[in-house]
Write a structure and sequence with these properties.
Elements: E1 27-32, E2 35-37, E3 41-51, E4 58-69, E5 75-80, E6 87-92, E7 107-114, H1 122-127, E8 134-135, E9 138-140, H2 160-164, H3 169-172, E10 174-182, E11 189-200, E12 245-251, E13 254-260, E14 262-264, E15 267-268, E16 275-279, E17 283-287, E18 296-301, E19 304-307, E20 318-321, E21 343-347, E22 356-363, E23 370-378, E24 383-389, E25 398-404, E26 409-416, E27 422-430, E28 434-436, E29 448-454, E30 457-463, E31 474-478, E32 482-484, E33 496-500, E34 509-513, E35 522-525, E36 532-533
Parallel strand pairs: 7-8, 7-9
Antiparallel strand pairs: 1-3, 1-11, 2-11, 3-10, 4-7, 4-11, 5-6, 5-10, 12-13, 12-36, 13-16, 14-15, 17-18, 18-19, 19-20, 21-22, 22-23, 24-25, 25-26, 26-27, 28-29, 29-30, 30-31, 32-33, 33-34, 34-35
Length: 540
């Protein structure tokens, strides 16, 4: 429904014979077209892999690249399946960020092997290397690209298997490409060799209770991401670490998604092609179901998620069955640590019944089944949970639960999202305050922010999860605005933000108080009265 939702093991061994897929493991396909990387040319060098022999859905993908370059921060490598069906940045623009246009100055030199079971972090390794030395060759995890002068959230773990698993033989056999580009002139490099490894799922494995070819990879090594990667920015549909300006508009029973890419400083680019997803009976969210660190539009209707994965160009709709009436399904995140978000929900006894067990229920992309986590007792509509954010600083999602305390004070308990253990308990605001997800206080820990109406205005109050200190209240926005989460200025912190609907044509707008300069408010016109800003989906 178009309104606030409240009621409610290691990686595979590298084996195989070049040129054809084999049942015993991933097959290796050597690349052609290697050579010098065009300097300062975003079109880059295209390496081709002739893949054949795939007779079942793809189960795993790996890629090795033997290359040299005298400035790793210039380089980006992107793997693309035949016909452009699916794509993933393998690594890109290492070390770039809001204050770094050119990135890390270390070299590349040797064989770098990328697969989901690897634990190597290319960004961390490059940061330890002298300007004139090469990042050590070896096995590395794929990482999201840096975003020069836009965001500090590049270099976060992604998943080759999440993006490419499930491709049918008709989509996997053919020419795969690896595009290696150099974004900045002066430093140069060469790709000496590259090999693509493609493994098929075993017979009988693929149908595991997930619906419509949403694949899972083999169990992988769980790695703890860098602190900047603990909490993904909400509604980042372009993968640059910035929350985009996205409006949902009901139209004749369907819902149209308009995504305005965030260009920074309160400005937006031309809208992406309009998407349709969900109906007026749906609830809406965005999370990373394919593991490319880019948000995917999602709509939940009567127990079924419909999701448009970004790695497939938003062109496909993947389905997953999870949940039932009265579940709070806005809890999805990467609970199992495989870089792919799991659908998750909170289930409590119906309102009016005696208090009973409350559970976080996670459909694990790694394990292939749902696991329950006990998070206390209560009833539906008497508690509100905001899960999927790291409140404890261990790199894993937790759940914050708000209940009514004495005198209508807001009683909060933070539960570990993996085992339900109590991490902290405190009071904040009132039990009728709205909870705004994110980290508003200057650290990478998710904090607890509540908001209430005072004399027609909105007052926001934040407790820093790292220190336990409650920050001075902030008065921002007015009654009737939709409160949002999200990082609009790219510093890794959540900004105070709302979408202000208006019946006056052209007057509806996003209003952002950026954490990098709280003395200003950015205004950006978008939508009309009756629309919904998806960045508010996790507000409870």
């Amino acid at each position: 429904m178009l309104h606030r939702h409240r009621a409610m093991v290691l990686g595979w061994l590298l084996a195989g014979t070049a040129g054809s897929a084999v049942a015993g493991g991933p097959a290796g396909f050597p690349g052609t077209g290697t050579g010098a990387i065009p300097d300062g040319n975003p079109a880059g060098l295209t390496i081709s892999f002739a893949v054949s022999g795939i007779v079942r859905p793809v189960g795993s993908v790996q890629v090795s690249i033997d290359l040299t370059h005298t400035w790793v921060g210039d380089v980006q490598a992107t793997l693309i399946s035949p016909g452009g069906k699916a794509r993933l940045v393998v690594f890109g623009r290492v070390g770039t960020g809001k204050a770094s246009t050119f990135g890390d100055s270390s070299n590349l030199g040797g064989l770098y092997w990328f697969y989901d079971g690897a634990v190597g972090d290319l960004w961390a390794a490059a940061a330890l290397i002298d300007t004139n030395a090469a990042v050590p060759p070896g096995s590395y995890r794929t990482l999201s690209s840096g975003a020069p002068q836009k965001s500090n959230l590049g270099g976060c773990p992604t998943s080759l298997n999440g993006v490419f698993s499930g491709l049918q033989d008709s989509d996997a056999n053919g020419t795969w490409t690896l595009v290696v580009s150099d974004a900045v002139s002066s430093d140069a490099g060469t790709v000496n060799a590259a090999t693509l490894y493609v493994g098929m799922v075993n017979d009988g494995v693929f149908m595991d209770g997930f619906e419509t070819f949403i694949a899972r990879g083999p169990e992988g090594t769980v790695i703890t991401p860098q602190p900047r990667c603990w909490n993904k920015p909400l509604a980042d549909f372009t993968g640059d670490g910035l929350t985009d300006f996205t409006i949902l508009h009901p139209n004749a029973g369907t819902v149209e998604w308009t995504i305005l890419p965030n260009l920074g400083a309160g400005t937006a680019g031309a809208a992406l092609p309009m998407l349709t997803l969900g109906t007026s009976a749906s609830v809406f969210d965005s999370f990373d179901i394919d593991g490319d660190r880019i948000a995917d539009p999602a709509a939940w209707t009567a127990g079924d998620w419909a999701i448009r994965p970004s790695s497939r160009g938003f062109a496909e709709v993947w389905f997953r069955t999870h949940g039932q009436t009265n579940d709070d399904v806005m809890q999805s995140a990467d609970y199992d640590g495989d870089s792919i978000d799991d659908t998750a929900l909170v289930r409590a006894p119906p309102f009016g019944s005696p208090p009973g067990p409350v559970e976080l229920r996670v459909q694990s992309s790694m394990l292939g089944w749902e696991f329950p986590v006990s998070i206390g007792t209560g009833v539906t509509s008497a508690l509100f949970a905001v899960g999927g954010f790291d409140y404890s600083g261990d790199g894993k999602p937790d759940v914050a639960v708000q209940r009514a305390g004495a005198g209508s004070v807001g009683d909060f308990t933070i539960y570990d999202g993996r085992n339900g253990s109590t991490l902290s308990a405190f009071t904040l605001g009132t039990s009728s305050d709205f909870i705004i997800p994110g980290n508003h206080t200057g650290s990478y820990y998710a904090d607890v922010t509540v908001s209430r109406a005072v004399s027609g205005n909105r007052v926001w109050e934040t407790r820093d999860s790292e220190t336990g200190v409650v920050q001075p209240p902030v008065t921002f926005s007015i009654v009737g605005d939709q409160r949002l989460g999200g990082d609009y200025d790219g510093d890794g912190l959540t900004d105070h933000a709302v979408w202000h609907p208006s019946t006056t044509p052209g007057a509806s707008q996003f209003q952002i108080r950026p954490s990098t300069n709280t003395a200003v408010v950015w205004n950006l016109a978008a939508g009309i009265s009756g629309d919904y800003a998806v960045a508010g989906a996790r507000v409870h």
